[in-house]
Amino acid sequence: MIDLGISKLALIGAVALIVIGPEKLPRVARTVGALLGKAQRYVADVKAEVNRSMELDELRKMKESVESAARDVETSVSSGVNDFEKSWSEATAGLDGQASSGMDDALSALGAPVYPAYKHPGKNWRIKQTAMPQWYKARSGVRTRALSGAARVARYRPRSSSASR
After folding, report:
1. Which of 2, 6, 24, 147 could, after both became Cys, cross-link 151 (CB 3.0–4.6 A)?
2. Could you tell me if 114 and 108 are in contact, meaning their C-beta atoms sit under 8 angstroms apart?
3. Residue 119 has pLDDT above 50, yes or no
4. What pTM value is reported for the model?
5. Cα angle 72-74-79, degrees, rounded to a multiple of 5
6. Distance between CA 13 and CA 8 in Å, rounded?
7. Does the pLDDT value for residue 99 go beyond 50?
8. How far is 128 from 98, CA to CA, in rounded Å?
9. Which residues are CB-contacts of 12 (< 8 A; sequence separation ≥ 6)?
10. Looking at residue 93, what DSSP letter applies?
11. What are phi and psi of 3, to 5 degrees?
12. Exposure string for 106-140, b = 16+ CB within 10 A, e = fewer
């Protein structure tokens, strides 16, 4: 890089003052400053672009390493699941969900209770999920019976003073 000290800058300024002249020197100085600013911004943009590309390469490498690790985990889990399914099928090979009659006799001879196979009730449990019990309605003051308009008027009509005579 160029080594510019104060003495060299003063010499350059004096030569510029003599060559350019005092009238044009401020305009030339402004132009040179603007050009130097543009050059610095351009260099900064180039540096930022290089840094971004380097970070992008690093991120790509990291992404590839994470993807390979995920693939390794996936293969190990799938092989573990396959091993488990194989051992489960071997362990449950003789069981088909219902005990045979010979098995029932053997279990009852040992005194173990024999339970029937599970059968799903087949009910639709969602039908009355939002139904509110009567005791809750009574406790919280929810109306359980609808009144007609005439019945409501008759029930809530203010008592007349003639009834007290």
Report:
1. 147
2. yes
3. yes
4. 0.36
5. 95
6. 9
7. no
8. 33
9. none
10. S
11. -95, 105
12. eeeeeeeeeeeeeeeeeeeeeeeeeeeeeeeeeee
Confidence at 124, pLDDT banded by 50, 70, 90: low
* Predicted confidence (pLDDT) per residue in 138-160, tens digit: 888 777 777 888 888 888 888 87
42: pLDDT strictly greater than 80: yes
Would you list the domain boundaries of the chain? Answer: 22-84
Q: Which of 31, 25, 30 is nearest to 12 (CA)?
A: 25
Q: Is the dihedral of CA 153, 155, 158, 162 positive or negative?
A: positive
- Count CB-CB contacts under 10 A for residue 63: 10
List the structure tokens of 102. 């010979």
**Farthest CA pair distance, the chain:** 125
Q: Please state, in angstroms and as integers, the Cα–Cα distance from residue 3 to each residue in 16, 40, 43, 67, 82, following that order.
A: 19, 18, 20, 51, 72
User: In this predicted model, which residue has the larger pLDDT, 143 or 45?
Assistant: 45
Q: Are the CB atoms for 68 and 76 separated by under 8 Å?
A: no
CA dihedral 145, 146, 149, 155 (to 10 degrees): 20
What's the half-sphere exposure (Cβ side, CA atoms, 13 Å) at 48?
A: 6
**Which residue reads 């590839």 in tokens?**
64
Question: For residue 74, which amino acid is it?
Answer: E
